[in-house]
Amino acid sequence: MSPTDLLGTARAKAVRAQRIAKGLADPHTRDSYVAEAKSRLGASREAVPSGAGPACLICGSKRQRTEELKYTRQPRKRVVVQVCKACGFVHMPEHVPSRYAAKKDMDELPAGHPRLGDMEIPGREFHMSKFGVDVLGGKGHSVLMYGAGRSLDNHHIQKLPEVGRVAISDIMKVRDDAEFIDANNPPRDRFSVVVASEVIEHFRNPHEDFARLLRLVDKKGLLVCGTNIYDGGKLAADRYIFYPDHTSYYTPQVLRRIADRAGVHLDFRAPLVGQGSRKRYVLMSKSGDVMKKVADYFGREPYAPSEVEHPPTLPQRSHQPWRVPQV
Q1: Which residues touch 61 (CB under 8 Å, ≥6 apart)?
Q2: Distance from CA of residue 3 to its chain's centroid?
Q3: What is the spatial distance between Cα 209 and Cα 188, in angstroms, rounded to a whole number?
């Protein structure tokens, strides 16, 4: 196109813009110009292929960066990530096919992690559960271990004098040592305390999965989730996203969006475990009074309880008797 043609095109666009502005300013012609604009906008949207790009699972934005990363410490480990530029959610789409749904026996599940309780020593889910009943106060509580896997903490939780009922839940049934709740089709049942240790990073559809999980929590109950929180750092150096079956990595702001949509209160507390000190207990409740009790608890105790032996100068006082095997 020649310079003369380019100049003519620019003048035509300017004249057209002036005409549209005049038409919008005139109350007699404004409606027709608005209708024409909406029509053209609809046509342009329909012209975009529906599969042009994946939408963020949290905010729906198409402004996502997709790339394959190599783990800085082990370059043979690779993962594809989708990072939402609008809300910060990190998704690992290639991990979506489940590694666990088809398991038939508990021995097929990962073992050996120190957070898992056995018959002699309670693990992280026990301390999360005891924390929950300590926050709520009183007796006769019901506790659900959601995504229990190989943890046998239900046996230790059942020994707590404040607890009357303990159940376990998962996407597959591989054991019969406790009442079982099917996570794929949960009943219309409610628990005082629901703990989900290292579970929510496996959620495929976070809004739907959190809603399903929260339906199991009593109106005056507490949900305690343990997970790493993304701090905005270099993802290639972050081991958490390279674990198989990890599909969702949350920032605090992303979890705030989820809580707001679900209509629940949200808080974060740190235990003395986790890579790079990013482990948090994500606390949710439908009750504002329960969240006040959470604040009161941490006015007395210095940090969230977990399976690790805590420094004697900063003990979790209410949990110290359970640092040794119970008989």
Answers
A1: 55, 84, 85, 86, 87
A2: 56
A3: 16
Mean pLDDT for 114-139 is 94
Radius of gyration of the chain (CA): 26
State how beta strands 179-182 and 191-197 pair. Answer: unpaired
Its pTM stands at 0.81
Strands 141-146 and 179-182: unpaired
What is the total residue count of the chain? 327
Q: Domain spanning 96-323: which superfamily?
A: Vaccinia Virus protein VP39 (3.40.50.150)
Tokens of 43: 């046509």
pLDDT, one tens digit per residue, over 267-289 is: 999 998 876 689 999 999 999 99
Give the tokens for residue 177. 């040592």
187: left (phi over 0), alpha (psi -120 to 50) or beta: beta
Q: Residue 214: which of 190, 184, 182 has the closest Cα?
A: 190
Give yes or no for a contact between 67 and 80, defined as CB atoms under 8 angstroms apart: yes
- What is the secondary structure of 134-177 as a DSSP string? HHH-SS-EEEEEET-TT--HHHHHTT-TTEEEEEEEESS----S
Predicted confidence at residue 255, as pLDDT, reads 98
Token pair listed for 142: 């019901």
CA dist., res. 190 & res. 115, Å (int): 26
- Dihedral of CA atoms 300, 226, 323, 168 in degrees, nearest 10, equals 120
Report the alpha-carbon distance of residue 154 to residue 180 in Å, rounded.
11
CB neighbours of residue 90 within 10 Å = 21
Q: What strand order describes the sheet that includes 191-197?
A: 179-182, 163-170, 141-146, 191-197, 217-228, 279-285, 265-269
E strand segments, the chain: 64-70, 78-84, 90-91, 141-146, 163-170, 179-182, 191-197, 217-228, 248-249, 265-269, 279-285
Q: How many CA atoms lie within 13 A of 133 on its CB side?
A: 25
Which residue do the tokens 């029509």 mark? Answer: 39
